[in-house]
């Protein structure tokens, strides 16, 4: 799903990066490939893709953690395992 969404966005002229590594620091040690962002749109919006029966609190926590580590403010958590896609889109914010 990630690749299809990225393809459609790119086709419409949107700058999208897929599977971006997100480094983090632990006690002054840089961990280069600690986490992977599913999609990064225009270097401003983080998108995490899921396909699960029900989103759990850990999915929202993961998205918020990625926002905090990246310094981004806005993220979307999208679950594709729903009847209507609009039911699966959740906005996650970092200190807005």
Number of strands: 5
Reported by name, the CATH topology is Lambda Exonuclease, Chain A
Strand residue content: 35-45%
Task: Tell me the structural class.
Answer: alpha+beta
Total helical segments: 2
Strand arrangement across the biggest beta sheet: 1-2-3-4-5
Q: What is the helical fraction, as a range of percent?
A: 25-40%
Reading off the top of the CATH hierarchy, the class is best stated as Alpha Beta
Average per-residue pLDDT, rounded, comes to 91
Radius of gyration: 14 Å
Question: What profile does the largest beta sheet have?
Answer: 5 strands, mixed
Secondary-structure element order, N to C: HEEEHEE
Tell the overall outline: globular
Total domains? 1
Q: Which architecture per CATH?
A: Alpha-Beta Complex
Spatial separation of the terminal alpha carbons: 28 Å
Unreliable spans are none
Could you walk me through the main structural features you see in this protein, from its secondary elements to its overall organization?
This protein is α+β, with helices and mostly antiparallel strands and 96 residues long. It has a single domain (2-93), classed as Lambda Exonuclease, Chain A (Alpha-Beta Complex). Helices cover 25% and strands 43% of the residues. The protein has a five-stranded mixed β-sheet. Strand 3, helix 2 (57-70) and strand 4 form a beta-alpha-beta unit. The longest helix is centred in the middle third of the chain and has 14 residues, at 57-70. The model has no long low-confidence stretch (mean pLDDT 91).
